[in-house]
Amino acid sequence: MFLTVASARLAWPDTLVAMVPEGLPLRREAVYLSGVFEAAGAVGLLVPALRRPAGLGLALLLVAVFPANVNMAVQGLRLDGYPVAPVYLWARLPLQIPLIWLVLWASRDDRATRDGAGTR
User: Fold this and answer.
1) Once rounded to an integer, what is the mean pLDDT over residues 10-28?
2) Does the model's pTM come out above 0.90?
3) Which residues of 91-107 are buried (b: 16+ CB within 10 A; e: fewer)?
4) Engineering a disulfide at 68: which of 13, 19, 74, 92 sits with its beta carbon 3.0 to 4.6 angstroms away?
5) Quick one: how far is CA 48 from the chain centroid?
6) 118 lies in some domain
7) What is the pLDDT confidence band of residue 112, given thresholds at 50, 70 and 90?
8) In angstroms, rounded to a whole number, what is the distance separating the alpha carbons of residues 46 and 13?
9) Residue 70 and residue 50: Cα distance in Å, rounded?
10) How many domains does the chain have?
11) Does residue 116 belong to any structural domain of this protein?
């Protein structure tokens, strides 16, 4: 999922720049940068040694892009490929919480469990 979204950010940044609140500087650059970090995080999740830092980075990225999602809902923005129903725009916001949890859960360091540490 993250790699797909990253590809969209990098391939069609103009569509997503509208989501970034107008008061923020370097909006286009922010879209590109978030796409690069999202792609790096997606790949990092597949590499055991990088899984935990990649998951933490993706969780931080989800927090960082949250204002753009709020802006989209408040402004009722209609972007290419996105449903325009206001209920959809608002319903996506609370879904960030389980998505952040899922990323952190999937990237947890469970070596202690595998190695038997902490067991009697």
Assistant:
1) 87
2) no
3) ebeeeeeeebeebeeeb
4) 19
5) 20
6) no
7) very low
8) 26
9) 30
10) 1
11) no
